[in-house]
Amino acid sequence: MAFSTSNDADEVLSEINITPLVDVMLVLLVAFIVTIPVLNNAITVNLPKTAPTQPAEQKKAVSLSVDAQGKVFIDKRELAVADVERELKSLHAADPDLSLHLSSDESVNYGTVAKVMAAIERAGITRLAVLTNAE
Fold first, then answer.
1. φ/ψ (deg, to 5) at 103
2. Residue 124 above 80 pLDDT?
3. Looking at the whole model, is its pTM more than 0.85?
4. End-to-end C-alpha distance for the chain, whole angstroms
């Protein structure tokens, strides 16, 4: 819609009328409010009755930690870096689906962590999670 000002006959003032836009948006809102509940409950299914079952046994993962001084711990037992591979092989032989959580201090030398990770790979452990601190 265009308006002219009384001061200057040549200047035209343009404004947008948003009333039809609001009307259309309200109609769409009402249409969605009405149709959404109908879409969610379209099919009714009667599930069969079964006997209750026991949930699968959750195995606790083995924790392997490297502290700031470079000491290696498996489930809070201190080991030398050279003994990590042997210990992991024995744990893996006892449980082939062994899960391992690796965590290390941020100030530890990367070479120590790399040696531990190489020992994990040589032990044949494929389920490894590297734990970090989310900020």
1. -135, 145
2. yes
3. no
4. 54
